[in-house]
Amino acid sequence: TGGIATGKSTVAEMFVSLGAYIVDTDRISRQIVEPGSAGLQQVVDCFGREILAADNSLDRKKLGAVVFSSPEKRKKLESLLHPRIFEEKNRQIEAIRTKDTHAIVLVDVPLLIEVGGDIHMDGVVLVYASPQVQLARIMARDNLTSEEAISRIAAQMPIDEKVRYAHYVIHNEGHLEETRNAVADVFQQLRKEEQRRSAALD
Question: What digits encode the pLDDT tens for the residues 132-148?
Answer without folding.
Answer: 999 999 999 999 999 99
